[in-house]
Fold this protein.
Amino acid sequence: MPPFRPARALAVALLAVLLGALLPATAAQAASRTVQGGRLDWGIKSSFQSYVTGPIAQGSWGLTGGAATVGASQFRFHSATGSYDPASGTFRAGFSGGVHFTGHKKSDGSYELDLTISRPTVRIQGGSGTLYADMVSRERGSGRVTSAAQVPLATLGLSGIDMRGGSTPIALTNIPATLTAQGAKSFAGYYTAGTPLDPISLSVDTMGPAAKPSPSKSSATPGRSAAPKKRTATGPFEDGAVDWGVRRTFREYVTGSIGKGEWTLADGAQDGGALFRFPKGQGTYDPEKQSLAATFAGSVRFTAADGLDLKLSRFAVALKAGKGTLRADVLSDGATTKAVPLVTFTAKDFAPKDGLAVLTEAPATLTADGAKAFGTLYKAGTAMDPVSLAVATDAKAKLPALPDLGSDATATPEPSSSPATKTAAVPTAAEADDDSRTGLYLTLGGAGVLAAAAVAVLMLVRRNRAKPDASS
């Protein structure tokens, strides 16, 4: 046997080990991930907002589908869904919520300016990106109303951003947006193609492919039902939550250019963008009389540069004869006042259906005691954000889903120096998972060692081939 054959066999074996180590990691990296939860912050065009609400158009805007405001001039769209391929960087994320602009009111009560932008979707592929949205608009001049789904509204400036190899969350900040020709048409002719729009920022969570569940035996005792008991009589309920945003303009004041502040949630309270959820309801509920006495967990604290420091905690709801009151402990100026009746609301129907009693966006009015809690900002009788309430009488019933802002949600986005400034964070997570770039680097590092060894052996093979056999 020629002397170089053992070396060649060793090289082949090392290459096989190399491929075996590298290919599974590559396949794992190439696996597409699901976008599940997150938010997109976008002002659309700040000057357009000013025009709509200014002295010329004398109009306004409203939020739909759970959209919220953040800072002084940005809208927050929520509950991202879509997909992401770490290998190619292909990315798609659709968000919920919308904004309805109206202005130039006519004598018949309609508006010459009537524009709704909703369900924005970001698509990125091959280094280019586009923002799509559902558009309903009244054409400027003719008054013709057009409606179109997922219009390519704006192109995104992604120069220098590499979307490949990210884990979770995927975050893009202050990405320039430019109006497209189709977007200009759907924008009712107020702007021409190529007009700069406000930059966008987004953050979404991603999840890897779900593992196949392993077969397991049921833990239920034979002959005994595992179904939970339904709560139909007067008494304790299974679970509950109250949702309340306090007041939209109050949140905007706190986080805007005047307040320059923030809000902080604690003790289990959750941020739904346009509202706060206070969970873990406890108390009693009478499904026949539709009466409720319940307390909830969580607190929210508002602070601002002008000295505002207001904390609301230990929320409670009393509901009787179709009328409700929302109470909370109020901490202001270093003093705490307990069980302050903040707002009253009407609940015409709070009967359980399929084990769940739900009240959705009941109009709320500030009480005299509530006005004191807000100092001189609002008078008694002021309309506050609506109250939503849910009580589960059956342990299997699920409370209504809260708008999903994704992980690391904050009340105020990071400030930007200019619309042209952009950064990408792919990923921004502190903890890398198995599909992270860290994992890829480690895999390639190990593969590099094997490759170097294989190259060394191949060089040995070549030398052996070139060297004459001494025994011949």
